[in-house]
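hey can u check if this looks right to u? its 124 residues, i copy pasted from the old doc so theres a chance i mangled smth
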Amino acid sequence: QRDISYQNLIHDMKLMLLKFAEEKSFSVDSGGGGPQSNLHTLPYMAHVALYTINSSRASGREERSLETWLDSPPSQWCGQATAVDGPFYQTTAAMLLLSRDKWSSKRAHILQRLLLTVHVRHVS
């Protein structure tokens, strides 16, 4: 029996947001429904992810992981661009874990990372 963890939920949220941003069909994975109806599940997924993170006392570990990613030097950004738990995963986690003030101060930095990620993935 597999344990469904908050990491799976964050990955699912990440994939859903990427699919929406790239205007891809949701019917392949969900069996139907348009983008709007599929995105209505995001708040529920976020709630379950946050509940699981908080009840399993993983928030400290996840926040440290996110801070490590945010503080990594630009020389590591290209290598992180293709990682499974790279910029798209970390951005989704940041939306769940960062306070509004911290998000406001870090969002331009996160956008730089996302732009580089898209470029690296496009040329490779």
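The CA atoms of residues 17 and 115 lie 16 Å apart.
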